């Protein structure tokens, strides 16, 4: 006798069959039909739609972080343009202080963009964030130097950096939530890894341009006009990203929520009332990403040239090589987190940083260019274990109704306190302690806190989105 699917056993078998079709071979469901029409998977999302989501998330996040890369890599030149009357180290600290101040507004931006993303929609929030960011970045290129307008030059730079910090606070979180909500159930880690990959690609282009400009132009030319060129590129790239995003629809899970009239009026209030434990865990988990990202991938060229005496162009080249390998490692980490779980990979990253960071920085001080490149590749690979897993980990921690808000607030709060301040703190620690290993100890401390936070959280990689 054939068992009816209305029985418990038949029902479970049907559910297992449906789940298998979604999770074990998503490529089969996303492929085109013989007639050339797009075939949707069981969630109703087709391959072309997902490709657009990936492209929009990549380009938007790329533009956001390209600016941060250029500012960090050209910090020495920016110091000469905006703080010419200060001694080199003081001027550099002032430049990084402006970098850090722009991060202080990011928690506020996290609340605003999170509220818009959870209440109105992810697409709307992301479209506006990239428009504001690209416009602000373009404006930096138009600021006159200190020699032309005096103290107003750094004041204008500060104002624009604050606008950038506000807009950037909605990008990383929104793009990650968007990708996770569109991704097949068993590939959320891989899809979300697109966000840190695009971030690293923005850094990579910034590093390449900085190396090219410093190699081709004289210092006087760099200070007069060369440093402005990378910032001018933000306008066309931002318009392209916004155009792609306006052609997308919101994610299926958010549309379902909106259709059921289940979108809440105050996501922030619900976040603090019902999900404050996850919020604390998320802030701690982000700490290693916040410090590690800006120390290893943004501050490193300045550290190598100013603190260790490496040739400026060589320091850019070393960081560029590390970034290329970092991008490749990111996707491997995303797939690894889908297979092993988010917690295992994040805990592994923290343990590696606790034991290897100080020895790695000691090897950087050898002055051997090949050793420096290998060490940076090692540090970048270790960082990808955290960075490639974190977007899916944070998105899965919070339910759909507060996902954007929870991600944005936790990510930006940790980055505001510890990420944007990392280059400044590293420079300050070296100046006060006299030790070039000070940034390594700071990074190791961040890894300890992240380890505790992740260990206290719940594994979510195998669970459906709430």
Automatic annotation (TrEMBL):
It is found in: Cell membrane. PROSITE patterns: MFS, SUGAR_TRANSPORT_1. Belongs to the major facilitator superfamily. Metabolite:H+ Symporter (MHS) family (TC 2.A.1.6) family. This is MHS family proline/betaine transporter-like MFS transporter. It is a multi-pass membrane protein. Signal peptide: none annotated. Keywords: Cell membrane, Membrane, Symport, Transmembrane, Transmembrane helix, Transport. PANTHER family: ALPHA-KETOGLUTARATE PERMEASE. The chain crosses the membrane at residues 65-84, 90-113, 125-143, 189-213, 225-244, 279-301, 313-333, 345-363, 369-386, 407-430, 436-458. Residues 53-462 form the Major facilitator superfamily (MFS) profile domain. Pfam families: MFS_1. Residues 1-47 are annotated as: Disordered.
